[in-house]
Amino acid sequence: MVELMAVKDYAQQIAEAIATVVKIDIEIADHKLMRIAGTGRYQKLVGQSMDRQGYIYQEVLRTGHQFVIETPGIHPLCAPCKARGNCSEKYEVVSPINVDDKAVGAIGLICFTEAQAKLIQENQQSYLIFLTKMAETIALKLKEQEFLAGLVSANHYLNSIIDCLEEGLITVDLEGNVLHYNQSAKRLFSANLLTPRTHLKSLFSPQIVSDILRVGTNVDEVIEREVQLETKKNKAQMILRALPIDSEGGVKSIGVTLRPFDEIGRIVHRLSLQDAGYTIEDILGVSDTVQQIRERAKVVAASQSTVLIRGESGTGKEMLARSIHNLSSRQQGMFMAINCTAIPEALLESELFGYEEGAFTGARKGGKIGKFELANKGTLFLDEIGDMPLFLQAKILRVLQERQIERIGGIVPIPVDVRVIAATHRNLEEMMAKGEFREDLYYRINVIPIDIKPLRERKEDIQILCEHFINGFNQRLNKNVRFLSDRFRQRLVEYSWPGNVRELQNIIEYAMNLANDSTLTEEHLSPRLKNNQALNLEDEFNLEKVERETILRCYQMFGGGVQGKEKAAKALGIGIATLYRKLARYNIE
Ligand SMILES: Nc1ncnc2c1ncn2[C@@H]1O[C@H](COP(=O)(O)OP(=O)(O)OP(=O)(O)O)[C@@H](O)[C@H]1O
After folding, report:
1. Can you give the residue ranges of the Sigma-54 factor interaction domain (predicted)?
2. Contact 383 CB / ligand 1 (< 6 Å)
3. Which of its termini does the chain have fewer beta carbons within 10 Å around, N or C?
């Protein structure tokens, strides 16, 4: 609660106004008996305590009632006073200053002459009312002060909340002049660019300014735009939202919020972690390979070096990359994955590096942020890096060396702090020999290589993976499968698993959809597995057999005529005589 001291100047003015009119001295004290205002002989005592003389004031403060004392110095209340029996005061009227029924101070008229005493005595009722009204005026001022202090504190509180926001917030009037902004907004803009009265024109492009101002014309209008800001450090892509601030009497200002794009990405990523928040423990398997991979991943997570994961499709390369990211100090940043095979060459560059507005025909307004920028402070997973075109390999190498990127059509390099984890199923060494993969990039990404063996070479992992997938699908499909028949199990072990763990997962899902009791049997196998003969490794990888099949396919494609044979020999990369020899040898007619 605000104390009377806070309005002492006002109390002094009131005291002087009263004294001028009634020609009697006034003394005002607060609830601690501190003299806060006074006239005549009391004026120079302002600021001094009255606790040794103000016995009448004490009584008024205690009771909250007015008090008239006709015999100062003699009245029993004056008993403890030093001036008892010798008081210079002749007559005294004291009123409480009440705020919310509580005495916060007292105001008194003090007569030092018989004439003054007589005057008050004869008009006592009027003086009492007058003094009460004056006390009320001071109380009112105090309430007003209290209200103002409340407003100031609420304002301060609101500002602190607004400053806590990570989002930049700017309010502008309907002409676009800045009224207010929070600390985050201040941090976003270059030095001194954002000040009160700055016009939006100095902050955003004319189109964005006009979009923002349009919001002020309609209470229901909200706009959202992707904008690029020249921040203190560099250029940054932001999501801008503008919304009307509806106050009494309609919209008088507009609120503009700004949020860095990569931060949004991080939030989305964090929220979606449930799905992809793999940890090392999720990598299942009892084989030496898997156990070593788990150990390796822990060590790798602690370093910042580039990792190259090699393995066939479906062996868990992305899963491993995500586990490394989630275990590393970059876990709060984004994990961005890009499959170099899945994206057409022409788009891959812009996906990776982003582009500036107007960089090429068809470029999106406001430009586009690339995966490298999105993965800033996080991890970029370059899947199937072996399929990346050579010119992009050169660009990737430059990013890894210089730790900065340039958007397509951009001139300012943007620093990025990204850990790259690359993956491939291809033989990079062979590609290098043929000039299809850059040697320098190979050595740059191959700092920490991790090989994941195909499932057919670690069949001991099938059991635990099956159990894991069965548990998952039991929940998802609301089933209660608990057993595998011996034949079912045997078929899984015999199969060559070209699609690796992903294929196993699909096979289990297929079987569980068909199963209606607790056991998966041979009849629940997909046709592909049902028809699969027991894998004969010697047969499967026999070079002669592979050669015969290839020649046969080629021969069938081009036909048996002389011209067909010539074409076949050319396609096979052998001479015509050799082809004839091989046709005879393999008994192909
Ligand atoms: N060791 C494992 N433990 C549990 N699940 C696994 C394991 N390995 C792979 N998986 C699962 O198999 C599926 C395929 O894994 P992932 O996508 O990581 O493979 P990939 O090697 O990156 O495949 P691609 O090269 O085709 O992109 C995922 O559902 C993953 O959870």
Report:
1. 283-513
2. yes
3. C
Of the pLDDT bands very low, low, confident and very high (cuts 50, 70, 90), residue 269 is low
Contact 499, 533 (CB under 8 A): no
Other Cβ atoms within 10 Å of 239 Cβ, number? 16
> Alpha-carbon distance 337 to 332, whole Å?
16
> Alpha-carbon distance 385 to 401, whole Å?
17
Ligand 1 contact, 499 CB (< 6 A): no
Domains of the chain: 4-147 (3.30.450.40), 165-260 (3.30.450.20), 272-451 (3.40.50.300), 455-538 (1.10.8.60), 542-585 (1.10.10)
- Choose which residue among 501, 505, 506 to substitute to test ligand 1 binding: the one with the highest number of ligand atoms within 8 A of its C-beta: 501
Which ligand 1 atom lies nearest to the CA of residue 320? 18
Q: Which amino acid is at 1?
A: M
Instruction: Pick the range with the lowest mean pLDDT from 174-183, 381-390, 543-552.
Output: 543-552
Cβ 507 under 6 angstroms from ligand 1: no
- Those residues whose C-beta lies under 8 Å from the C-beta of residue 235, and which sit 6 or more positions away, are 228, 229, 410, 412, 414
Which pLDDT belongs to residue 374? 86
525, exposed or middle or buried, with CB in 10 Å at 0-12, 13-18, 19+? buried
Ligand 1 within 6 A of 316 CB? yes
pLDDT at position 275: 47
Counting ligand 1 atoms within 8 A of each CB, the residue from 280, 286, 318 with the most, and so the one to mutate, is: 318
Say how far apart CA 163 and CA 30 lie, in whole Å. Answer: 38
Which phi and psi angles does 226 have, rounded to 5°?
Answer: -95, 125
Per residue in 501-532, pLDDT (tens digit) is 999 999 999 999 998 899 999 899 988 887 76
Q: Is the dihedral of CA 457, 462, 465, 466 positive or negative?
A: positive
Question: What separation in Å is there between the alpha carbon of 374 and the centre of ligand 1?
Answer: 24
Give the closest residue (by CA) to ligand 1 atom 24.
313
Q: Taking each helix axis from N to C terminus, what angle separates 543-558 and 562-572, rounded to the nearest 10 degrees?
A: 140
Residue nearest to atom 25 of ligand 1 (CA): 313
| 246 φ, ψ (degrees, to nearest 5) | -90, 105
Instruction: Answer whether 323 contacts ligand 1 (Cβ < 6 A).
Output: no
Q: Contact at 8 Å (CB) between 421 and 278? A: no
Buried b (16+ CB within 10 A) or exposed e, 73-82: eebeebeebe
Which tokens in the block code for residue 99?
Answer: 């705020």
Is residue 581 scored above 70 in pLDDT?
yes
- For residue 556, pLDDT beyond 80: no
Looking at residue 548, what is its pLDDT? 86
Cβ density class 94-103: b for 16+ within 10 Å, e for less: bbbbbbeeeb
Taking the C-alpha atoms of residue 426 and residue 420, their distance in angstroms, rounded to an integer, is 18
How many angstroms separate the Cα of 141 from the Cα of each of 30, 108, 217? 14, 18, 40
